[in-house]
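Single Protein Entry

Contents — chain, fold
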Amino acid sequence: MDTKSARWFRRFLLLVGVMTLCFAQILQGSDELPSESLPLAPNSLLLDMQVVGTKIVVVGERGHILTSEDDGQSWKQMPTPTRSTLTAVYFADVKDGWAVGHDGIILHTVNGGEWWEKVNAEIESGTSYLDVYFIDRDRGFIVGAYGEFRQTEDGGKTWEQKWVSEEEMHFNRISTGQDGYVYLAGESGTLMESKDQAQTWNALESPYYGSTFGVLSIDKSILLLYGLRGNIYLTEDRALSWNKIDNDVKVLLSSAIRLRNGIIVMAGQGGNLFVSRDLGKSFKLWKQPSLIGTAELVETPGGYILAAGVNGVHRLDPPPLQESASDE
């Protein structure tokens, strides 16, 4: 592998959440420096994103946090107290938000992302967090590499480490369902379910034993599971049985959203997006040449799709309600 390919591959591993503590140690110490204001930050590696009221908040490498209040047309970089890579962001409400990442970094905002402070949780600097989720302002969860799972009951003042799985596999994403259900997707077929808002967990039998990157809840019984090599699985009986969905494009699938009009959009690497108009029973390729590698998708208040990833944030018009030639 040449130097250019090796560099891209390292970024690729970071993007999908499959990383090692050795890589995290290379970045160790960057949490001690504040982020730098960079004009090209919107075009840098960005890994997670959330719509917060009428605002969009996105996080990524070098401690970058950016916000947009015009559906992603323009971005404002926020100051942060770290240069560690931020992998995930979550707001419990329009004011109270959290961002996590490498070097055990946890950031908190109480003013909608305008200002962030570092939370001292007495966590080893080599810890790599990959996702964060809060039920309300007080109760939240962080997951990451090697089975890392921490929870707080007091709004992040203290964090308790828990082991919810016997296997120390990476947890890549927390996904919320309905009726208080929460799902964890991770490497080597790791798939876990909580029926009581993450109080207790049980392992589900995964239909795929490679790495999975998320569960999209469509309704109480219908779930989509997605992962490496274009693998998509659908259950219509709440994970009692799974059907493999045909997909000839063997790329990593990193994110999925259901638009307000009911269409499902799934993100794959290399500019390959996939569209379903039948609740996940089938997908059509929706090629987007402007994208290199996508980590996260959101639908903006104005109905656009934002894709964040290797080459920043891109704004896309939504796919048409009816299948068209543009799907290919």
About this structure: The helical segments are 3-16, 21-26. The radius of gyration is 18 Å. Residues 1-29 have pLDDT under 50 and may be disordered. The chain is about 5% helix and 40% strand.
